[in-house]
Amino acid sequence: MPFFYDADVEWKGERRGELRSPNLPALGVAAPPEFQGHEGIWTPEHLYVASVNACFMTTFLAIAHNSKLEIVSFSAKARGKLEKVEGIGYQMTEIILRPRLVIRASRDLERARRILEKAEKNCLISNSVKSAIKVEPEL
Amino acid sequence: MPFFYDADVEWKGERRGELRSPNLPALGVAAPPEFQGHEGIWTPEHLYVASVNACFMTTFLAIAHNSKLEIVSFSAKARGKLEKVEGIGYQMTEIILRPRLVIRASRDLERARRILEKAEKNCLISNSVKSAIKVEPEL
Q1: Contact at CB, A23 and B40, closer than 8 angstroms
Q2: Residue A115 — φ and ψ, nearest 5°?
Q3: Nearest CA to CA, how far is B12 from chain A (Å)?
Q4: Which of B30, B46, B131 comes nearest A128 by C-beta?
Q5: Based on CB atoms within 10 Å of each CB, which residue in A60, B112, B116, B138 is the most buried?
Q6: B119-138, pLDDT tens digit by residue?
Q7: A40 — phi, psi (to 5°)?
C-alpha cells in the first residue's frame, strides 16, 4: 500500500484515442456521438459506469467467497445518469446497479441480500465517486 | 439531457467478468492480482483511471477545436493512487495526469497551457470523482 494504476491515452485523430496500460490489451476510446464523438467505441462515460459496476462485482465475489456463499450465476446491469448541475456543469449524478443473482440454497437468500449491500458499501470505486449509487437486486 | 450510459457485467468464474454495452465491443474485466484477481485483464481500478484520462483528452480536444488550436500530437499518462483512508476504507485518493502536447505554432504555447487547465476543470468525469486530480503538462 498504496497501489498505483496506470492508464495512458494517445490521440488517434478526430475525437478518438487509444488506452494502454502495461500488460493490458489496448482499448479504443472516444467521445460519445452526443458530444461530437463516435459510435461503437467505449467512451469515458461508459468506462466510468463500467468501473463502478465491475468493482461492485469483484467486491461482491470477494465477500461471497469469504462468507462461503454458493453462487450459481451473477450479472449486473448498470446505468449512469449524466446531467447538468448548477455551479458544477456536467456530472454523473447517479448510477443504478441491478444485480441478478442465483444462489445454490434458498436458505441463504437473506444473507445474499446483505452481502450485495455490503459489496456496494465496500467497493473502492463507489468510495471514490460522487455519484449516488442505488442497488436494486433481483435474487 | 439527461444522457444515460449502460455498462453491464456478467460473472465468468473466479474473479473475472465480461463488460457489455449496446453497440460496444465486449471487454474482459477482473479484480487485480493484489486483490486475488488476474493478470493481463482490465480492472475496475484501471478503468476508473482510464475514464478520467480519456475524458480529459476528449474535453481537451473539444476545447482546442473550439479555440482553433492546431494540435500535432497529444498523449497523456495517468496514474491513480489507491490507499486506505480512515473511516472510509480503500479509496482512489489521487490521479496525476501528465499530458504531452505538441502544437503547430509556438506562439500558442500559453494558450495551449490554459486550454489544458480548462479541460481538467470542464471534464465531466473529473466533476464526478472524489480523487484529487493534478495536471503536470509537458508542451
Answers
A1: yes
A2: -65, -35
A3: 9
A4: B131
A5: A60
A6: 999 999 999 999 999 999 99
A7: 75, 15
Asked whether B91 and B83 are in contact (CB, 8 A), the reply is yes
The torsion angles phi and psi of B8, rounded to 5 degrees, stand at -95, 150
Return the number of other C-beta atoms located less than 10 Å from residue A61's C-beta: 26
Q: Are residues A4 and A36 in the same domain?
A: yes
- A122: pLDDT confidence band, cut at 50, 70 and 90? very high
* Contact check, Cβ <8 Å, A128/B10: no
SS3 category, B4 = strand
Q: Out of B50, B54, B124, whose CB is closest to A92?
A: B124
User: What local confidence, expressed as pLDDT, does residue B139 receive?
Assistant: 86
| Domain that includes residue B38, residue range | 1-42
Q: Where are the strands (E) in chain A, listed by range?
A: 3-6, 8-11, 16-20, 27-30, 71-85, 89-103, 132-135
Q: Measure the CA–CA gap between A30 and A32, rounded to whole angstroms.
A: 6
* In a shared domain, residues A63 and A129: yes
Residue A129: its chain B contacts at CB < 8 A?
128-130
First to last CA, chain A: 35
Grid coordinates standing for B87? 473511516
DSSP-assigned letters across all residues of B37-85 = --SSSB-HHHHHHHHHHHHHHHHHHHHHHHTT--EEEEEEEEEEEEEEE
At A120, which CATH number?
3.30.300.20
Beta bridge partners of residue A11, listed in sequence order: A17
CB-based contact, B133 to chain A, within 8 Å: no
Contact status of B39 with chain A (Cβ, < 8 Å): yes
